[in-house]
Amino acid sequence: MSKVEDFLTKEEEQEIVEAIRVAEKETSGEIRVHIEKTTSKVPFDRALEVFHELKMDQTELKNGVLIYLAVKDHKFVICGDKGINEVVPKGFWDSTKEAMATHFKNGNFKQGLIDGITKAGEQLQKYFPFENGDTNELSNEISKG
Asked: Over 50: is that where the pLDDT of 143 sits?
C-alpha cells in the first residue's frame, strides 16, 4: 500500500462517509476520518495537529472525534475533544481502538473504520443528543494528508 489514495476504494470511502452521516444523525457531535501516508511525529501528537487543522476543536460543545490513520506506519489514533472525553466511560477509546485493530489486522480497514465511527456515534448520541437547531458543523468527507 504505497499511496493514501490506494488505501480505500471510492466505494469504501463512500460507505465510511455514509457511516459518519448516520452516526451524526442523532447527535450534535462531529466525527472525522483523516488518512495520511506517514508521520515523522508521535502519532497522537500528529492527530492533535490534524484535529486543530480540521477545526475540530471549534465545535460548540467540544464534542468532535477524529480517527487518524498513518497508513505506511500502521498507526492510528482516536482523538476526542474535551466535551466527549469528560463523559465517555473510562477505557472507552481503548476498547474502541481494540475493536478497530482486530479488523485492521485482517486487512478489513473499511469495517474497522465503520465500527469505530459507529461506537463513537453511539456515545455522542448518548451524551450529546440531537436538538432542534443543531447543524452539521464539519464536513463528513475523509480528509487526506
From this structure: yes
